[in-house]
Amino acid sequence: DIVFCLSYNKIIPEYKLKLPRFGVYVNHSTDLPMGRGWAPIQWSVLKGLNSITVTLFKAVSECDAGPWVYKDTFCIEPHDTIYSLLEKDYVTSKNLILKLLKCISINKLVFHEQAGNVSYWPPRRPEDSCLDTNKTLNELWNNIRICNNENYPAFFMINGHKVIIRYEVLP
């Protein structure tokens, strides 16, 4: 009857969007239509935003362009890492989904067209995790904390060798 795609990075074909009775819903971690596209959490940190708005929207065949049903915001703290931000994103998305399900059950679902300036953020690539050794650690913190230690670790090059940085933030 309903499909949820959490942090999905593909365009869903039109024929699949029509299969579930209530539709296909996607969470996206920007205040759409700002930041359509990829790696919204990482780009939000790199752009110096202080918060992330999660948008739950009905999927259409255009990238992140469907009408939204709910939005909620969480703060980006100075000590947050990709891991803590993904956890905040998960909790926020789960709450939005529960809210949506309740509204469907009482037939009170309201859709809102996206309004404002549309922007697209590109995918991040492994080479985007390369650190500029001319900057201080304080200047590099945002670049380090958005990296995934296992799959896309931060790194720098020295004398032709790749040096990988793995980090941990302690309470």
Keywords:
single chain; about 170 residues; alpha/beta; 4-stranded mixed sheet; two-stranded parallel sheet
* Number of helices, where a helix is a run of at least 4 consecutive DSSP H or I residues: 4
Name the helicity range.
25-40%
Overall average residue pLDDT = 96
Summarize the main sheet.
Answer: 4 strands, mixed
Strand content: 15-25%
- Rg estimate, integer Å: 18 Å
Low-confidence stretches: none
Structure class: alpha/beta
- Global outline: elongated
Q: What string gives the helices and strands in order?
A: EHEEHEEHEHEE
Strand element count: 8
End-to-end Cα distance, whole Å, is 43 Å
Structure description:
With 171 residues, the protein is α/β, with parallel strands linked by helices. The protein contains four helices and eight strands. A four-stranded mixed beta sheet has the order 1-2-4-5. A hairpin with a 2-residue loop joins strand 7 and strand 8. The radius of gyration is 18 Å and the shape is elongated. It starts with a strand and ends in a 6-residue tail after the last strand.
